[in-house]
Amino acid sequence: MIKVNKLTIAHNNKKLLDVSFEIKNSLAMVGMSGSGKSLTLKAILGMLPSSMELEIDIKSDFELKRGESVVLIPQNPFTSLNPMSKIHKQFFVPKERIKELLGLVDLDADTLEKFPSELSGGQLQRVVIAIALSHKPKLLLLDEPTTALDSATKNNIIALLKKLQKEMGFYLLFVSHDMASVENLCGEIVVLKNGSIIEFGGLENIIKNPKEEYTKSLIDSNFKYRTWRE
Q1: Residue 118 lies in a domain
Q2: So what's the pLDDT on residue 176?
Q3: Are strands 26-30 and 14-23 parallel, antiparallel or unpaired?
Q4: Are the beta carbons of 82 and 131 closer than 8 angstroms?
Q5: Which of 60, 90, 93, 120 is in Cβ range 3.0-4.6 Å of 97 for a Cys bridge?
Q6: 133 within domain boundaries
Q7: Range of the domain at 145
Q8: Within a domain: residue 110?
């Protein structure tokens, strides 16, 4: 378990974020733009600007090290890779290991000799996931990783992440403004509003029985035409 006992961020004496939460397995963090989702990720990664004041207390059974035990899957795979380098040069592990990693994300070995521009958005995101796996992460941070993808590709990426987590046992923190995108991946959810958590619990329970109007508006915008799977 990863326990965030305290995470407070302030700027110019104004509090921007004040949260505490646990990641038992896979946790979704949802909220509208400006709610504090990106600040949370940046704080965990140690990437906040020096002008911000940070108080953080995180307990886990491993050392939190950016780029090693903690790895980020960014929002847009198109900007995550060097467009001038072939895929095999984007990794920093031996070529045989790269082939193994590509196999884990259902990509063929011939992907190694292609440039990013020759791959689809879904293929690029799979490459980014493979690069993340090369670090053997204990915690995978997902920053709206399906936003730039079409619906079918998004569902495939979510299914892949779920399979990989089951096989490799890493923790997941999935940040999104889209309730639907976390439906099939996360067991628990926190709802952020103006830097504070206003709801927390099992994802299915929050979807079916939201207590706050803010949460209801998020659900309505994403699930208005959908039926929850029984």
Answers
A1: yes
A2: 86
A3: unpaired
A4: no
A5: 93
A6: yes
A7: 22-53+65-223
A8: yes
Q: What is the pLDDT of residues 55-65, one digit of tens each?
A: 999 999 999 99
- How far lies 3's CA from each of 7, 30, 114, 128, in Å? 11, 18, 41, 27
| 143-166 per-position pLDDT tens digit | 988 887 888 888 899 999 999 999
Q: Which residues of 35-56 are buried (b: 16+ CB within 10 A; e: fewer)?
A: bbbbbbbbbbbeebeeeeeeee
What is the reported pTM?
A: 0.90
Q: Are strands 53-59 and 2-11 parallel, antiparallel or unpaired?
A: antiparallel
Q: What is the pLDDT of residue 194?
A: 95
Residue 116 near residue 78 (C-beta atoms within 8 A):
yes
Identify whether the C-beta of residue 172 lies closer than 8 Å to the C-beta of residue 192.
Answer: no
Q: Total structural domains in the chain?
A: 1
Give the model confidence (pLDDT) of 26-73 as tens digits: 999 999 888 999 999 999 999 999 999 999 999 999 999 998 999 999
C-beta atoms surrounding 75 within 10 Å: 19
Name the packing angle between helices 95-104 and 121-133 (round to 10°).
120
Residue 130 lies in a domain: yes
Which of the 8 DSSP states describes residue 119?
S
In which residue are the tokens 């509208």 written? Answer: 32
